[in-house]
Amino acid sequence: MPLVSTDRITGPARAASSGVGAFNVVQIEHAQAIVAGAERAGLPVVLQISENTARYHGGLAPIGLASLALARGSAVPVSVHLDHAESEDLVHEAVRLGFTSVMFDASKSPYEENLAATRKVVAHCHEAGVWAEAELGEVGGKDGAHAPGVRTDPEEARAFVRATGVDALAVAVGSSHAMLTRDAVLDLGLIASLRTAVDVPLVLHGSSGVGDEDLARAVAAGMTKVNISTHLNKIFTAEVRARLAAAPGVADPRTYLGPARDAVAAEVARLLGVLAGR
Question: Does the pLDDT value for residue 158 go beyond 50?
Answer without folding.
Answer: yes
